[in-house]
Amino acid sequence: MEQVILAAQKMELPQVAVWMAKLMYEAAKTVQKPQKRSFIFLTDIFEQADELKLAVDACRSAVEISPENSDPQLENRLNVILANYTIKQGQYGQEGEGLRGVRDVEKQKELLEKDSLVKSDDYLALQIRKAKKEYDESPTVGGKITAYVDALLSVETPENQQTAIDVLQKVFNETGAYNYKMRIGDIKIRQHMLKVRAAKESGDQEAFKKAYIDQLKFEIMEFDERARNYPTDMGFKFELGRRLFAAGKYDEAIGALQVAQNDPRRKVMVANFLGQSFMKKQWWQEAIDTFEKVLATDIPEDRTKDIRYYLATCYENQGDLKHAEENYSAIAQIDFNYKDVRERLQNVREKLKPA
């Protein structure tokens, strides 16, 4: 199944790859001894195809394979995919939706925490002591460094997080290996997420808004640095562009997203945010061209709804009601209950009636 999926990707047949990945996921769940590697592979495939709900399911399955052996990196990845899925569902780009999206992420994380198995504090403390001893004996060995950091982060306290940052900073200063610097960034992103959660739970909306804005600012700086260190990794450019869009920095978002267009795995997501960035500037024709370009490629029908909705909105703002009607109608034929498409379609048709 893996070989078929990889072959389908190589032949640029994303629908076939996702179809086979779904079959593989069901098969992987039913084997006598589920393999963590298989679920991680499927997480990669679903995430590349922008099937984020499936990516969440696959990653959660990987996390739950060995609950007795904490894997903070994988758990952090699950949180990131979950956040991205919530962004996609909640449309961070809509006015006023960003903060609601954060609240939705936290609800999902609370459900995840309820489902997870609670590990003994004594057991986790023992793992930290064991990992520290091995690290102290071999402080330059990558595996020992990673194991110690992972153990520290399995018990989420400010003290453990700071110790992990100190360890990573030390090895980064000594080696210049940027992957350690990125791990520091991951920890700090997590710290910001916890601050957002605490502010939300306090009921203080001003503190909540400030915490969210602080998180967004940090992530923009972090992904900008990652994009500069890995200029050929279009994923970092996309993550940067998406956060610039959420921050309302549309000119900068356009620049980052236009570079990210070179990644065929994210073409629909990139076009979505790029087109919306043009819309925020009321550059309707540029937005139209962006949406039309991606619609002309081979993408699954159910992934065109967002694109067509924004495309129709652009045509409507330009006064091209005929093309607006065509796109609203196309959405209604796929999903009659999508957003307010019924009302918009009816409204456009009323305007098109002869006087």
Short description:
The chain is mostly helical and 355 residues long. It has helices spanning 2-10, 14-30, 36-48, 52-65, 72-90, 97-115, 121-137, 142-153, 158-175, 178-202, 205-229, 234-246, 250-260, 267-280, 284-295, 305-318, 321-334, 341-352.
The end-to-end span amounts to 60 Å
| Total helical segments | 18
Largest sheet: none
Low-confidence stretches: 91-98, 109-118
Helical fraction: over 70%
- Backbone CA Rg: 22 Å
Q: Round the mean pLDDT to the nearest integer and report it.
A: 87
Estimated structural class: mainly alpha
Element string (H = helix, E = strand): HHHHHHHHHHHHHHHHHH
Count all strands and give the number: 0
The fraction of residues in strands falls at under 5%
Overall spatial form: globular
How are the elements arranged and paired?
Blueprint: H1 2-10, H2 14-30, H3 36-48, H4 52-65, H5 72-90, H6 97-115, H7 121-137, H8 142-153, H9 158-175, H10 178-202, H11 205-229, H12 234-246, H13 250-260, H14 267-280, H15 284-295, H16 305-318, H17 321-334, H18 341-352
Explain the overall architecture.
The chain starts with a helix and ends with a helix. It is built from 18 helices and no strands. It has 355 residues and is mainly α. Helix 2 (14-30) packs antiparallel against helix 3 (36-48), helix 7 (121-137) packs antiparallel against helix 8 and helix 17 packs antiparallel against helix 18. 36% of the residues are buried. The model is unreliable at 91-98 and 109-118 (pLDDT under 50).
Index terms:
single chain; 355 residues; mainly alpha; 18 helices; 78% helix
